Amino acid sequence: MISDRPAGTGVIIVTLLLAALLEVVPLPASIDWVRPEWMLLVLVYWVLSLPHRIGVLWGFFVGLYHDVLVGTTLGQWGLATALGAFVMLAAYKRMRVFTALQQCAVVFLLVGTVSLLAFLVQESVGRTLYPPYTILYSSVTSALLWRPVCAALRWVQLRFLVR
Known about the structure:
Blueprint lengths: L8 H16 L13 H12 L6 H15 L5 H22 L2 H25 L9 H26 L4
């Protein structure tokens, strides 16, 4: 008997944990400022792929985990990532029919907006850790890595029957 219950929540969590691992892998200081927003990229993929299951609440908890993981102000990334999930939920039908280049442009704008919001929260509490122009660098690398991340997560989704 086939269950009506959605499958693959564990796989989604594992992919987010792997993205969290990539967030904290030590990089040389000279290239640390181009680190892509791995957790946001993975979350955006799952929101686009499974909008009926992954949404704003997932975004908020992924962001809170990101806050704890990297030691930023609690709620900074929670708020920003929830906003990113909300924007993707509002635009997922359009995003699915965009070309690869258009998707990369949307991801660039989304990562830039989310990172800017996180920066503004950090600035408001007086804990600025990086200059604001570095947001552009991480947004560009995230946009460039969007298609490979999509391909890898699509393979995972098909392989483990995540629905």
